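Researcher: Good morning. I'm working through a list of sequences from a screen, and I'd like to move beyond sequence-only analysis. For each chain I'm collecting a predicted structure so we can compare shapes side by side. This is the next one on the list. No need for commentary yet; just the structure.
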Amino acid sequence: MSEIEQSIATLARRDGRFHVDAYLFVFDALAYARDTMHLIGEEASEEEAQGDEGDEDVEERHLTGQQLCEAIRRLALEQFGYMAKLVFNQWGVTKSGDFGHIVFNLIEIGQMRKRDSDRREDFDDVFDFDRDLVAQYRIRSPD
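Model: Good morning. Structure tokens for this chain:
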């Protein structure tokens, strides 16, 4: 287990609300935002994940809570399909605002960083699990 994974596992045990996989999924969503949604540069998301401070380009590469939630939603549908809500619920995540708690926990231990204007509440009500993960899910058949 890497040092980062160990610190996240310790955080998950200490906090007790969310499974370690929920924390790791946030990092996967950052990579998804970079690689698929092209919201941030490659070097940016790696530095964001490592909590590298003091860089002047932070404003250009920073994701908002809403953008990260959209990356989380899209990646969940891609990876888990119709089961996305169930997977999140198994991890202790029941609403988009829970990802705000996860992100701010990661900020506390230096694994992510924030701007002064960022708030945990930026993640509240960004998407609804029933509407945006279940009701709108469509199974696509290969053509």
